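Incident review: delayed structure delivery

Summary: a single-chain prediction request sat in the queue longer than the usual turnaround. Root cause was a stuck worker, restarted by the on-call engineer. No data loss occurred. The affected request and its eventual output are reproduced below so the record is complete for anyone auditing the incident later.

Affected input:
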Amino acid sequence: MAKLTIGTETGAVLPASDTGRFRGSAGLSSVVLPLGLAFFVLAAWQLYVTIFQVPSVILPSPISIARYIVDRYDILLMHAVPTTLESAVGFLLAVLLGVAIAVLITYSDMAREALYPNLIFFQLIPKIALAPLFIIWLGVGSQSRIAFSIFIAFFPMVIATTAGFLSVDRGILRLCRSLTATEWQIFTSVRFPTALPHIFSGMKIAITLAIIGVIIGEFITAQAGLGYLIIFATARADTEVSMAAIVVLCICGLLLYGLVALAEMVANRFYSADSR
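Output delivered after worker restart:
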């Protein structure tokens, strides 16, 4: 029987079939447990609303929210498209800006001393207080929402990417330079692959902040989008519509987050295959 050693404190040796079964059960539990908890919360929510006869204007039931999503999916989809597109654009631009600043900070001591303290200072400013200024500067169109989305999403990209670039072992860098490798070769072959886990960690944070930035912009001024729909329905005390829009917003956010996770998996496989 094939044997496979796994990292345990006792140095135990498990059959390969048992190891595969263990990994399969772990993967299954990572799906079953969150779904089970979500189902429990929704069931408790539905029972609470039904038993205590809570008015829908205060808290609609999950069934009524789901019914509204199914019946009015066209309206929700119409508002979801601009929100998702603007979030994606803001996220991509924030990633490019964050990586560019991280490269500058990594390779220039002067830039690091000049930029890093100011980045920390701007991060301490309550972002929502600046949202109206972006509307004044850039107008009421999508450009102001995208710019605000970039503004609040690029900071974690800068911090995470810089940490990744600086985490490379200095001994490896000295070895590469002793072999007459150029800085571009060192960056593409050593720094960037080493920083990938940090970069994708920053991207996972940035995608959520990009969505928040767009929603805040839609709260202030917009004629379409899920943020506009939420604030419009709330003003009319239509809680069911607001909750339905929030559910759709969560789904859009999960889809964008899933694309980032998929890109991480593809990048890891590519560099793993390339290293072999």
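Verification: The beta strands are 3-5, 13-15.
Action items: add queue-age alerting; document worker restart procedure.
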